Amino acid sequence: MPETSRDLQLTADGELRHFLAIEGLGQALLTRILDTADSFIEVGERTIKKVPLLRGRTVVNLFFEPSTRTRSTFELAAKRLSADVLNLDIGTSATSKGESLSDTLLNLRAMASDMFVMRHSQSGAPHFVAQSVTPDVAIINAGDGRHEHPTQAMLDMLTIRQHMKTFSGLRVAIVGDVQHSRVARSQIRALNTLGVDEVRLIAPDTLLPHEPEALGARVFHRMEEGLRNVDVIIMLRLQHERMEGALLPSESEFYRMYGLTREKLAYANPGALVMHPGPINRGVEIESAVADGPQSVILGQVTNGIAVRMAVMSMSMGGQLNERQSGTGEGVAST
Amino acid sequence: MQDIEQLLDRMTDDLRAHINARGLSSLCPVGIRTGGVWVAQALRERLGIQTECGELDITFYRDDFSRIGLHPRVSPSRLPFETEGQHLLLVDDVIMSGRTIRAAMNELFDYGRPESITLAALVDLGRRELPIQPDVTGTHETLGPRQRIKLRGPETLELAVEEVPDA
Amino acid sequence: MKWRVDNVHPVIDGEPAAEATSVLVVDGRITALGADLSGERVEREVDGAGQWLLPGLIDLNCHLPEPGSDRGGSIESETRAAARGGFTTVCTTPDTSPVNDSGAVTHLIRDVAARNGHTRVLPVGALTRGLEGERLSDMVGLTRAGCVALGNGGHATASSRVLRRCMAYAHTFDIRLFLQPENASLASDGCAHDGLVAARLGLPGIPEVAETTAVNELLMLAEETGANLHLGPLSCARSVALVRAAKEAGHSVTAEVGIAHLVATEAAIEGYNGTFHSRPPLRTEADRRALLEGVESGVIDAIVSQHRPSDKAAKLAPFPETQPGLSTVESTLSLGLERVAAGELSRGALLRSLTSGPARVLGLEAPAIAEDAVADLTLVAPEQHWTPAVRSLYSAGPHLPVMERELPGVVMLTAVDGRIRHEHGGDGS
Top-level EC class, please (chain A) (predicted)? Predict the structure, then answer.
């Protein structure tokens, strides 16, 4: 039987060794990621923004789906950890079959890679690699299909914690295309694990999974009801393809029903945080006045993004190395 | 174990002598978490230094990362002053192998190039593995193979020798 | 060849007889049954004490990967596995490579099966050319070449108009149709049951309606055209209900379910376990229960292996890219017996759905342990156990629903046409 996500991601001591999904990780570990990220934020303010943790290690950015933005953040994070970075953009056309995926990765491992940062269009692809192809290379999921995008979610959690100080008592609404969103799946899990009061999904049925409650959230169809008493609003990005797939009539109708305008924002608690993973479609998901308004934290997440990625990369690398060394570690640190 | 107040007094005297001999002005104190910060604060008060105490968390600079991974508890380092061109007073509670000091100095240099670094340690256990020596030391101690020393604080500082539990 | 089984309990209509007896086989037929046949001089005596003698099991849905690539087995390897599983007859699906849409391919399959096969092999031909759902195959030519039925091989026929014409044409020549119900546009790029697990794992789902709308459509078209329709494998409770209603209304439809759907649910794909990637997808526990109930009540006529051997590499990929299907033909009977032991299914219903049920679907007379019956026989030790493990499997496909766990029921001997084709502990040939 394949291992569960939890078994696969953690060492026998409960340390991170791959970072594949939020599902399966406990509150203490998520909190540690956030704490570690806080320390990396401080590192980013120094003259020299680099720490030697991953010196001599090779990190390969494997993007089977293009994303310049996410890839650059990972690249910067790896470089700030002093790792050597190799960027590979492998178009979806070049290799999509499992066999060649395995071959590609085995070749890269032979080049003494220590970590794969992987984005893939198929749900579960990083899980498959960690389990069956290169279990001794730390795998960081940079987004798989519509499954999870755990580093993006942790960055959002860091932002929420910076503004709200705590997760308990919070009501969080996630608005838009939940069905196709890997970010949403990770966010829902992270929010629930970190102990918010309630996670709400606001979307039409076509943009929700068949059994949305399975994700651990309460479903609303209308903004007026879903945003009531909410402390944080997370707007998801709407892909243009959704119109072609007959999931929505038009962008303008989506905006009318689910776009975050000043008027709809008023339903939420005063001072509610407005978040968006970006890039924003103004006038589709969100009104410019809201996006640029005082409650919006859409910009200024870049620092957090690098810090969170540095945290999960160093923690996973540490777990991997620890596991490779297991039995030889001395236990008592020299002073 | 000796009285900490006496040790701190002696260190203060030795530091004054060191400062005078070297002609150092305005030392900026930096303690290594956790015990080193307490000692640094105590020395700062005794020396009448105005500058606030800096706090270093050396987790990201440890040379045992590849053996034991990232330490579970890390909090941001905090240096409330510019280090560039400054005379720094680096303080730790215990010095043994010298690796912590090396990590701390690597970290300090990422903030800028200090003019000088003076090293002070409350307890020197010997057994050095790197060519690093404190300028000022409170006391020298020798421990048994299964013993370690720990500074308790921060209200009242107290040194305690503990038995290391069998692995 | 003349041989005899002694002290054995013949299974009649799914029930082992209380009295043990001896069965004499001469030249492919059962020639005598009786308490004492020891006077007969035979070449082989088999002690059947504590064992059941069943009419040979019949599998209506078994993929034999020949013609095809040489990965994932051959007619030889997979019929050897089938004989070990107690099957004496397997119907092989049309989705070979090339597709079995011409008499030439049918002849090829039959020739290889006659030469290398360990069971009877009854080819099911393709309903449309290349299984593309556009042009009719040479239906009469295929049946004359030896196809017992024509089917879609799990490839949904997208056009209802083509489907209606296939049925009308098949009806004209009294050709049996084996159709797996799936609405292609509703199934779309799905790879798992559109439910709790797929929602969590972020896998594109195949909704239940992808099957039920197709069942409805096929039932309506068969009713109108008079086609002889066999449906399956079914995967959900509502499909069972639809077939039940059709049968109660007097339609002559029959149906099958794959063994995997009786033993596993969507929970099996947790952790992106590609072994359980199957088509139709494994659904909920309620569906599994309803399928078992369908077998029990006879709404579902046959349990099939839906055996689809695939080599290791075919499952070594991200879940959506793994090849659907499990390797089941060696363990179908044992998995069924395990359900019987669990109290989920009666022994009679299980054994009927592997013998008389599929025989009825094929229009064969009810198989029996009786004088003058063809000696397709399966000898089973119900109290013995075995443990499937990759090294000891006959099938080239290592993806079983159960591995490294003990299963009840060991097939001691399988005889086809009086010839012993598998013997437990022997080399099987």
Answer: transferase
Which among B163, B159, B161 is positioned nearest to B146, based on CA atoms? B163
pLDDT in tens, B41-95: 999 999 999 999 999 999 999 998 988 889 888 999 999 999 999 999 999 999 9
Entry pTM = 0.90
| Predicted ipTM of the assembly | 0.89
Residue B71 structure tokens: 């330490």
Residues ≥6 apart with Cβ < 8 Å to C84: C330, C394, C411, C414, C422, C428
Gap from B17 CA to chain A (nearest CA, Å)? 27
Within 13 Å, how many C-alpha atoms sit on residue C268's CB side? 24
Quick check: A123 and C320 CB within 8 A? Answer: yes
The second-level CATH assignment, the architecture, of A5-148+303-325 is 3-Layer(aba) Sandwich (3.40)
- Count CA atoms closer than 13 A to C109's CA, side-chain side: 37
Same domain, C46 and C58: no
Contacts of A186 in chain C (CB under 8 A): none
CA distances from C310 to C48, C63, C65 (A): 35, 10, 9
CATH of the domain at C299: 3.20.20.140
Q: Do A122 and C319 touch (CB under 8 A)?
A: yes
Q: Do C204 and A2 touch (CB under 8 A)?
A: no
- Mark yes or no for CB contact A325/B106 under 8 Å: no
Is position A126 annotated in a ligand binding site? no
Which of C200, C204, C318 is closest, CB to CB, to A215?
C200
Q: Do domains A5-148+303-325 and A150-291 have the same CATH topology?
A: yes
- Put simply, whether C425 touches A (Cβ < 8 Å) is no
Q: Where are the domains of chain A?
A: 5-148+303-325, 150-291
Shared-domain flag, residues C76 and C137: yes
DSSP string, A105-153: HHHHHHTT--EEEEEESSTTHHHHIIIII-TTSEEEEEEETTTB-HHHH
| CATH architecture assigned to A150-291 | 3-Layer(aba) Sandwich (3.40)
Neighboring chains of A (3 or more beta-carbon pairs < 8 A): B, C
Tell me the per-residue pLDDT of C129-159, one tens digit each, with 9 for 90 and over.
999 999 999 999 999 999 999 999 999 888 9
Which domain covers residue C43, as residue numbers? 2-53+377-389+403-423
Asked if A35 and B73 come within 8 Å (Cβ–Cβ), the reply is yes
Contacts of B68 in chain A (CB under 8 A): 318, 322, 325, 329, 333
Mutation pick from A323, A328, A332, A334 vs chain B, by most beta carbons of B within 10 Å, is A334
Q: How many CB atoms lie within 10 A of CB C192?
A: 26
